[in-house]
Amino acid sequence: MKPNLEINRFLQRQINKYLSPELIEQNESIQKFIEAVNQTYINYEKDAELFEQSSRLNDIEYQEINDTLKSKLSKINEFQEKLIQAIYQLTDAELTDHVSTDVIDLLKILNDEIKLKKDYQQQLFNAKLEAEKASEAKSDFLSIMSHEIRTPLNAIIGMIYIMEKEEHLEHFKENLNVLKLSANNLFLLINDILDYNKIEAGKIELEEIPFNFSVLVDQIKSSLTVKAEENLSKISIKTDTDFNPNVIGDPLRIGQILTNLVSNACKFTQNGEIKISLETLTLEKEKIHFRVKVADNGIGIEKEKFNVIFQKFGQAESKTTRKYGGTGLGLIISRKLLQLMNSDIVLKSKVGKGSTFQFDLQLPLVQSEKNNFSEMNEFNEIQLNGLKVLLVEDNLINTKIAVKILSNWGIEIETAENGLIGVNMFQNNRYDLILMDLSMPVMDGYEATSIIRTKDTKIPILALTASASYGYLEKAMKMGVNDYIIKPFNPKELNYKLSKYHQDKFYSTV
Fold first, then answer.
1. Residue 346: how many CB atoms within 10 A of its CB?
2. Share of the chain above pLDDT 90, in %
């Protein structure tokens, strides 16, 4: 470890408990690992984008409540004024017994209206208090989940990847698997929070790209097989013989929906089976209308709980959260995504018998079977010997991890700690590709990319960013970025995209 490195006191306590100074001193990989984990403690307190978005959403909700309150009270006040005017007009006239009865009736009506007004005001006030409490709870919940958490996550996942590639002590394997699982679970949790916030803010944009639906389903099955086997269950796929899998849509979002449904089925099914079925409803030359079902024979859901599980942060029972985990956001996100695709989730379930979640999609068909998504699924990491890359990144830990990963692929890499240094290095050297962080001090990635594009319009620039916000990525594309990779990045995805932009030069060396 570096001399005079200040270790977080909580981390130091664990180090003292499990690791001896001699073991640390003799193992460089352990020292690097301790430095990486220590850095995550240092970076954890950042919070920016989500707090602003949640605050803006709260303002919108409060405004709607206030507007409704003002509108209702205005109408009631107008009606009350008319009643009072009618009473004055009657008292000015010569009153008979019959008229007196009318006045008494009118006073009774007025009294009833005033009482209704007070009751309604109280209801509105109570509703406003409940809305404020719910909004405050949501704001507190979202504000602690910042996109900046992706930065330390990137360090954790990157270090795991490096340690898996290198030789390490045998007794570290179990701890490494636990760390990997925890990091991936945290990554999925953060994605749920971010996606929910983006949907609430109306920032979700669906892509329309060609992909193979059957390949997507197979990939989801493979990724969740281990999770199913942990509960002694298995996953099967049934596809209609006339099903055409070559469609145009958003494979990322559809995959997110399917992954959520299959993952939930695995979670709540012990010693059973999860069945994924693809059923063709109508098949035309240019489009296909089909049904996707995810069925299990798990614990099931009570009918009166059907609506609860589709509500914000809702689960069928509070004990479900304690036993099985989860944010209660997965199904509401899936439903909102499907609604953007003009569809919805239909649930059938019996307690103790299992559950079936299904949805229908109508997607355009493509003629070609080859597409980027299937290529990515079948792609294996390749060596990129001779590729010269400039990495512009201000986070030291992320830089070290990226350099180590890229070096393993035979890439020659140079680094710059901010956009200004990156621009100067680009002007004085030749590079085949630039990996550009977007959020940096001195000069950010947007400005650096814009300057580079005034001098070179052809060099590929890939944004390596912790922000999944569509607005930020769209801005980066306008500045001249060719593509982007979201942190924590998947090394396979990075290798695939580096190969994609230089395939003519480097595929021949494999």
1. 12
2. 28
